[in-house]
Amino acid sequence: MQLTRWQRLGLTTAIGAALAVGATALVVQALEGPRGPAHTAQTTDAATPAATDDPARATPTDPAVAVAVEPTAEPALSAPVTAQVDYALAHWKLENYNAAAWGVLGENDCVNFASQAMIARGWTMDGVWSSPKNGNAYDASAAWRSSTAFMNYIASTGKATALTDQQRDRVKVGDIAQFDWDNTGDRDHTGIVTRVERVGDTISISFAGHTLDSDYRSVDTAITVDHPGGRAYYWSVP
Known about the structure:
Elements: H1 5-32, H2 37-44, H3 79-91, H4 99-102, H5 110-121, H6 142-145, H7 147-157, E1 161-164, E2 176-180, E3 189-199, E4 202-209, E5 214-218, H8 219-226, E6 231-236
Antiparallel strand pairs: 1-6, 2-3, 2-6, 3-4, 4-5
Helix pairs in contact: 3-5
């Protein structure tokens, strides 16, 4: 069939347009990649999140390991404090009382024992705080054998600094612990601090004493279990 010039021109234009569309489709397909099943699922499944530019996060492979909180180490003890604490730990038991030298105050020997420990630390007797060291504790002065008199003696001489139980962060091994079991303002018991443990913000204090005989008796147990509602006080000894 013989085509006219105008027919040939129209056919050429149509073929050119078809070729242009085909080329564009090939370019788009090359840019997007092959359209396989995975591509179809991504574009049709609304529950699948769209891709982002965020970097991929590594998946943890090991469970988190709990970090144990260790007690804070206490500073090394000085020679006088070491001698004091060694004495307390050597003589807190009834069978190891140093009764031949200092005697025993029946059922109320706590201050007699604490005073002995302070002598081991280096304190010296005077006219108010003293013992004849003759095996008879009743011959000792009131400050030597009474918790309240001992409190007044320390306060008047300035040998130590008074602390409340809210100041535990200042208490150290070798300090003096005193207790008011019934909150009357006097002192009912005395001991020597033998351990201070710090775990985080918690401070636990233990002490040695006679009547109740103990080497590491818990202050918290003493004022909550043994004497509920009792109060603890301390003397910080320089």
